[in-house]
């Protein structure tokens, strides 16, 4: 899926920043400013991804309700949309797990 590539890149950046932080005791001001900008971009990317997953779930639920009410929606379309939403949600959970692992790794590094 195309949404995971930017998140994987951001995770690699976090890991490289953690490695750099472990190598030096006090980062310079430029590094701090750059990491702040990157974290803002990452937060925006993560927020947009979560909104997309939420939108997919809402669309799938709306399709299911429309089908239940006898609307002009085919069952196979409902099932496909619900599966897409489920896969997107599972992907978001995996990203969360990877971020939690990265955070734990960073916190366990000795300075």
- The average pLDDT value, as a whole number, equals 80
* Percentage of residues assigned to helices: over 70%
**Continuous helix count:** 3
Order of helices and strands: HHH
Instruction: Please state the CA-atom Rg, rounded to the nearest Å.
Output: 19 Å
- The name of the CATH topology is Methane Monooxygenase Hydroxylase, Chain G, domain 1
Give the oligomeric state: single chain
The shape is: elongated
- In the CATH hierarchy, what is the architecture at level 2? Up-down Bundle
Give the CA-CA distance, first to last residue: 37 Å
In terms of structural class, how would the helical and strand content be classed?
mainly alpha
CATH class: Mainly Alpha
Question: Ranges with pLDDT <50 over ≥5 residues?
Answer: 24-33
* Percent range for β-strand residues: under 5%
| Count of distinct structural domains | 1
The largest pleated sheet is described as:
none
Question: What is the number of strand segments?
Answer: 0
């Amino acid at each position: 899926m195309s949404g995971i590539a930017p998140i994987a890149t951001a995770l690699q950046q976090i890991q490289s920043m953690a490695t750099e932080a472990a190598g030096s005791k006090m980062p310079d001001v430029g590094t701090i400013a750059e990491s702040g900008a990157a974290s803002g971009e990452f937060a925006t990317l993560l927020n947009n991804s979560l909104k997309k997953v939420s939108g997919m779930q809402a669309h799938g639920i709306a399709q299911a309700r429309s089908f239940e009410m006898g609307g002009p929606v085919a069952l196979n379309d409902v099932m496909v949309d619900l599966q897409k939403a489920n896969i997107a949600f599972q992907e978001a959970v995996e990203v969360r797990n990877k971020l939690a692992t990265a955070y734990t790794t960073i916190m366990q590094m000795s300075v």
